[in-house]
Specification:
Elements lengths: L31 E4 L3 E5 L3 H22 L14 E6 L2 H8 L8 E3 L4 E5 L7 H17 L7 H16 L15 H6 L8 H35 L4 H8 L7 H18 L2
Parallel strand pairs: 2-3, 3-5
Antiparallel strand pairs: 1-2, 4-5
Helix pairs in contact: 1-3, 3-4, 4-6, 6-7
Length: 268
């Protein structure tokens, strides 16, 4: 979901889909193709708009790598390994092609390096593009295995989106909503049946990621992510990266709750 769309009737992003095989654009649509160094944009018109989208994406990816400290692999996003972006002309076309829930408006398939968007190719909302790109950048770095929890995946995407867009992360979160980490960790995309469910989940995932970054800085957070990449469970990765702060997920949950309560006392 696009970070700036929390609480709206129609959300922008369904969570990243991994482990799927890339498929060509569907038949019956007159696709045009624009290629940049690292992207291939499939669209139904407006070559200048496709070039604009590609330039924005190229710039954003480099900033995301710098923010996360990711190291680019050799041959990353070049030639046939370029990121493929499909821009459907309408929301109805997007929903029919992807089978996404009615509240979704874009999709990232990180494992096959693919984004699926809709609308005028040159007018795709910045937040939408940033959020979806963040999914691909983060998952290519941390891995596609199921041990990466959805709250972390979505939280990092929302954090990067806000960081690059210059948004006030805390100011965009619903201040009175707070689920236990155990509940956040148990949720999957299929559990987010309504726009309200999705808005609450994504907002809190972003807040939890921001909390971890405040508690240990980027060094501890990257250590946590690297442990997940190495196959550690969330609990083990947390103990390794934050040994003086969190000995368990319950410890993190309690500290996060305390932080949230303090922020509520300071104001909305």
């Amino acid at each position: 979901m696009s970070f700036r769309s929390f609480g709206s009737a129609v959300l922008i992003v369904i969570g990243v889909v991994t482990g799927a095989r890339a498929v060509p654009p569907p038949q019956g649509m007159e696709w045009k193709v624009f290629k940049s160094r690292h992207l291939i944009v499939y669209h139904t018109g407006d070559e200048a708009g496709a070039e604009k989208l590609a330039r924005a994406a190229e710039s954003a990816v480099e900033k995301m790598r710098a923010a996360l400290g990711c190291v680019r692999a050799s041959g990353f996003w070049t030639w046939e390994n370029r990121l493929r972006v499909y821009v459907y002309p309408s929301r109805a076309d997007f929903l029919q092609a992807t089978g996404a829930p009615a509240w979704a408006g874009a999709r990232a398939r990180a494992a096959v390096r693919e984004l699926v968007l809709h609308g005028k190719v040159g007018g795709v909302e910045e937040a939408t593009l940033l959020h979806e790109l963040a999914h691909v950048v983060f998952r290519e770095w941390v891995g596609f295995e199921d041990n990466v929890p959805l709250w972390l995946d979505e939280g990092v995407a929302a954090w990067l989106e806000a960081r690059l867009a210059g948004a006030d992360l805390a100011g965009r979160l619903p201040c009175k909503v707070r689920w236990p980490v155990e509940k956040l960790a148990a949720l999957a995309n299929g559990d987010l049946a309504t726009s309200g469910d999705a808005a609450s989940f994504y907002a809190q995932a972003a807040d939890l990621v921001a909390f971890l970054l405040r508690e240990g800085g980027s060094a501890a957070f990257l250590k946590f992510c690297r442990q997940l990449r190495a196959g550690k469970t969330t609990a083990d990765a947390l103990r390794f990266a934050y040994p003086e702060k969190f000995r368990s997920i319950a410890d993190m949950d309690a500290a996060w709750r305390k932080r949230r309560e303090a922020s509520l006392e300071d104001g909305p």
